[in-house]
Amino acid sequence: MSSDDLSMWVGKDEHEGVLAQPRRDVRPPAHWRLEAIAATPRPRSLTVGGGGRLGVFIQDADTSDVWLVDPEGGVPDRLTAGRDPAPYWEDPAPRLSPDGSTVAYVDTGYIWLVPAAGGPARRFVEGSTPVWLGNDRLVIQVERDDTTRLAVVGLKDPWPQRLATGHEGLDEYGDEGEAAVSPASAAVAYTFTPRGDLNRSEIRVVAVADGTVRALTGTPRMHDNSPAWSPDGETVVYASERSGFFELHLVGADGSGDRQLTTARADHTEPEWHPDGRRILAVRGRRNRFDLVAVDPASGEAEVLADGGLWSNPRWTALGAVIAAYEDHATPPELRVLTPGATPRALHAPAPLPVRRAPYAELEDLTFRSHDGLEIPGFLMRPPGASPEAPVPAVVYPHGGPTMAYGDEWDPHAQYFVERGYAWLAVNFRGSTGYGRDFERANHGVWGVEDTRDCLAAADCLRSLDWVDSERLAIFGASYGSYMALLSATDDTEGRFRCAVTKYGDCDILPCWAQGDREGVQDLERMMGHPSTAREAYRAGSPFRRLHALDVPLLIAHGVRDERVSPKQSEQLIAELRRLGKTFEYVTYPTEAHGLLRAGPQVDFYRRLTRFLDWYLM
């Protein structure tokens, strides 16, 4: 790809101070190529319909198109063409009708319908997250009065009718989601998050016929989610964090008999009953490795069907097998089938051979102590040839979210830099998922303060390794990880870092609260409170107010179409850096939103990142 090819993707390209100029690669990767990484297809968001006879999924590459697959084998069929790339975290899964005839999916704010046998798709109705209610209706999510509501639409009359209307004695100002239709299509279980307690979500059931709502669960400042019906329609399984982890619970459809089912001290997601009612399929995560398990609904005992890595989207097939998505640090995303008594087999592994056969660095579990003694976990990758005699530069990589985590997942860009000669430490700072509710909430009210100290402690951990060059460290992150990188570079009074990289992140969370989209703003309020009552905490968590202390160069990148973190955040940052006479490089991408998804911008950014890190660390 030439510089002319890239020009259409790059907006403003600004520099101040001593710039990172191209120079000879110190250790060019022998196997990893940025163009190959950008072009590698990644299947995700798998669901099953048609009585378990067909699967439908999204595959990310140059587009995020919808595909159909037979769980018993065969080549998947592409059902759509030209669907714009979409980030996995806000792109709902497609759904196949119970009779297997039609797929519903979301694109550009609308629900579309396409025949499973092939043919043109038609735009159906404005909304999101469709779930079939029989073969002739859908339950969808719509935005009304600054909230998310569930509505029902008929295929012959696509006029949304609110589903949950009978809220006698219940709070109804909040967001509805995660709709699960009962086997007889008479009721819908869903999660409800009241606006007055954003750290609470509860399971409710609504009668389709008259809209009457019943709350099955609900505990202040506790989340219940992921409801799924038993085959007889008498019981709902769901995940709750009341015990400290997201364990599975069972409750009667009438609200009776609520009990905790699993006691694994692990997080459970995506439960699904077997049609015979004697097993519940789920993903079980411990310290951010995710196994596939089948849970006995009577005893709560779990059988491990397959170790993780990262399993996701598990579904029963018509023949009693399991189809699911899988990846790990050395395996690109693929779809696999698990048959009882057999080794999991790849059903759809679209990554090209050069990517699948490339050498992968091992992922080492690592823990270290932060400033207050709290144990902080992470994953470390070590480049070939690193030794006390030949110490290597290193990168601290905080993840986005922040209510997310870095796990045993496919991260080709990290592998690219490791092969290039960099150590890579992905830090799961306080606030990360996978280590229990208390650890996840340890950053509430203290964004940018305690979690920043965890990132600085990660640098100290690297400096203690005799095969790492303690004078050649950088920090790089995207979204919340970008915010962590800027804070760490600004608050680094010991000169740990030689440079920092911020990719579509905040610099001042007080105005960011007013600039972001609703989901981002509510997430900020969930953890930090409303700025009218927590203004000092917002100020303490804003590196913009301390940029005079910054002593290292920055590489800053932002998508012009970003609605989660407004580009105004980076514009505010560079204006102040320029006023203070700091060194920076700033690039924008006019086609991109929150995430660099298209191949051109992605390759351009990582080329810049390579040049930047090589200049300051190599």
Please, could you describe this protein's structure?
The structure is a single chain. The protein is built from 12 helices and 37 strands. With 618 residues, it is of the alpha+beta class. The strands form 8 sheets. The protein has a 9-stranded mixed beta sheet, with helices on both faces. The chain has a 4-stranded antiparallel beta sheet with strand order 2-3-4-5, with no helix packed on it. The radius of gyration is 24 Å and the shape is globular. The two termini are 25 Å apart.
Summed up:
The chain has 618 residues and is of the alpha+beta class. 18% of the residues lie in helices and 36% in strands. The model is unreliable at 1-8 and 20-25 (pLDDT under 50).
Q: Alpha-carbon distance between the termini?
A: 25 Å
Main pleated-sheet profile = 9 strands, mixed
Strand content: 35-45%
Based on DSSP secondary structure assignment, what is the total number of beta strands? 37
Unreliable spans are 1-8, 20-25
Radius of gyration: 24 Å
Shape: globular
What is the number of helical segments per DSSP (H or I, 4+ residues)?
12
Overall average residue pLDDT: 94
Structural class: alpha+beta
Q: Taking strands numbered 1, 2, ... along the chain, how are they ordered across the largest sheet? A: 1-37-36-35-34-32-33-31-30
Amount of helix: 10-25%
Q: What structural keywords apply?
A:
single chain, 618 residues, alpha+beta, 4-stranded antiparallel β-sheet, 12 helices, 18% helix, globular
What is the element layout, followed by pairings?
Layout: H1 3-6, E1 13-16, H2 34-39, E2 42-49, E3 54-60, E4 64-69, E5 77-78, E6 95-96, E7 102-107, E8 110-115, E9 122-126, E10 128-133, E11 137-144, E12 147-154, E13 157-162, E14 174-181, E15 187-194, E16 202-207, E17 213-215, E18 224-229, E19 235-240, E20 247-252, E21 259-260, E22 267-273, E23 280-286, E24 289-295, E25 302-306, E26 310-316, E27 322-328, E28 331-338, E29 345-348, H3 353-356, E30 364-369, E31 375-381, E32 392-398, H4 412-420, E33 423-427, H5 437-440, H6 450-463, E34 468-478, H7 480-490, E35 499-503, H8 509-515, H9 518-528, H10 535-540, E36 554-559, H11 567-580, E37 584-589, H12 599-617
Parallel strand pairs: 32-33, 32-34, 34-35, 35-36, 36-37
Antiparallel strand pairs: 1-37, 2-3, 3-4, 4-5, 6-7, 7-8, 8-9, 10-11, 11-12, 12-13, 14-15, 15-16, 16-17, 18-19, 19-20, 20-21, 22-23, 23-24, 24-25, 26-27, 27-28, 28-29, 30-31, 31-33
Helix pairs in contact: 6-7, 8-9
